[in-house]
Amino acid sequence: MHYDRYDGPSKRSRIDYYGGMVKTYQLGNFGDHGSSIKLAPVTTEKEQNVLTCLQVNGTSDIAIEPQTVLPSLVGFECIGAEMINGVNAEKWQLIQQIGQKVNKYTMWMVYKNVLENSDEPIAVPVRYEMKGFNSLLGSHYDHYYLDYDSYDVDTISPSTFEFSANLTCGSFPGPGINHLYTFNPMAEFVHPVETRHVDAEFDKFMTKHGKKYQGEKELEERKEVFRQNIRFIHSVNRQNKGFTLSVNHLADKTELEMKALRGRKYSGGYNGGAPFPYKNIDRTALPSDFDWRIYGAVTPVKDQSVCGSCWSFGTIGAIEGAYFLKTKGKLVRLSQQALIDCSWGYGNNGCDGGEDFRSYQWMLKHGGVPTEEEYGPYLGQDGYCHVQNVSLIAPITGYVNVTPNEINALRLAIVKHGPISVSIDAGHRTFSFYSNGVYYENECHNAVDQLDHAVLAVGYGTLNGKDYWLIKNSWSNYWGNDGYVLMSAENNNCGVMTTPTYVTM
């Protein structure tokens, strides 16, 4: 549920989410390059759901523009009329063939006389539905729809874009980072189509992934990013590295945009975990390969959407696995959203970064975490903390740091204690475009302060003589190999073995 006001001439827009729980402002007229403002509830250990103002300014490369909730209908065709939401509406549709799948984008609209002193009706949107690729950072097959409960074209009062003078807007505290793209998640759900002024390859890419750009200038900039990325993908694949890349929805994205999909932030210092209790591990006593999915200890791959909340997915995955072992086979989907909403007081920053141990510390104080079913669905946005109104399960007694950089230690931890929360260096184009094979990146870092993404190690094995970790990502099952990546265990590549943790119950 959202409320939107769009004022193109003044370059301002405002979108409220979930009944005003989160308010976002896109102010293109602010400063040299515009500014994004987010008013969101922040819960610490001292205060609960305090309205907080967070701000990110545009740059010369990425200016802030107002955000509409109406898609471009270029290429759509009217296919008749249909009853939708209780009204008989005109139906417009765009159909695209994407490999073996069909993409459908549908807009239902009616015509009403809403302008004073005019008999000419205007089109009023009723519903927009997207079955296929969404368009910003998490572009994968899915099903979204927007219902337009009310729509008008009245003049917008300037006060709409004002907020309390008592609020001081600042950047993120703790380990978080300013993400331009998590400030405007609505852009992900308004699918666009643009097929002009592009060469054949870029046109194919745009059609496949449903891309649209803000004018010819951005189109040319995106095309250049795409050209460099596709050259990179082909050059890597020619090197026969043991893994392959493929063109995906990220092929026109800048590094800043890709960074919005990563949210593990290192804040320094000892994390408070217990030392790994096992010494002198006999590798021959461990299985040669292992996969917790086979035993039913892993929930389906999820999608963090346009929210730097990977830290909550790695954490919850480890807790779900530990609870599965504790209850002798009961797999329950636990709530990432609860950690996003409620653990600010321990240094996490919701959609803008965090660390697993901070969530463990929050759980130790509060006695567990709610189920997704009871707390409510994942929002892809910061929300009101309401754990006091739900039951908390899966209480933990502590958390353990697996001995760093020891392959046998991590293998033993996985076998004995379930899926393990790990952090990796995911800041490389090879990772963004990973398709299959054992991923080894020569440029990857493994120092603790160089890891920027939190994931879940659910197993290990060997492929073509190369040891790997089976890693569950949170970029949907349309990324990588059904949402998973085989990450090389050689030389602690990308840092899988640097900071593994698990919980005790």
From TrEMBL:
Annotated membrane-spanning segments are none
Q: Identify the residues that the record assigns to the Peptidase C1A papain C-terminal domain, covering every copy.
A: 286-504
Q: Which Pfam families match?
A: Inhibitor_I29 (PF08246), Peptidase_C1 (PF00112)
Keyword Protease applies: yes
Which GO terms of the molecular function aspect are on file? Answer: cysteine-type peptidase activity
Q: Which Gene3D superfamilies does the entry link to? A: Cysteine proteinases (3.90.70.10)
Q: Which UniProt keywords apply?
A: Disulfide bond, Hydrolase, Protease, Thiol protease, Zymogen
Q: Share an example GO biological-process annotation for this protein.
A: proteolysis
Write down the PROSITE patterns for this protein, in alphabetical order: THIOL_PROTEASE_ASN, THIOL_PROTEASE_CYS, THIOL_PROTEASE_HIS
- Cathepsin propeptide inhibitor domain location: 202-258
Classification via PANTHER family: CYSTEINE PROTEASE FAMILY C1-RELATED
Q: Which family does it belong to?
A: Belongs to the peptidase C1 family.
Q: What is this protein called?
A: Digestive cysteine proteinase 1
Q: Which gene encodes it?
A: LOC108739436
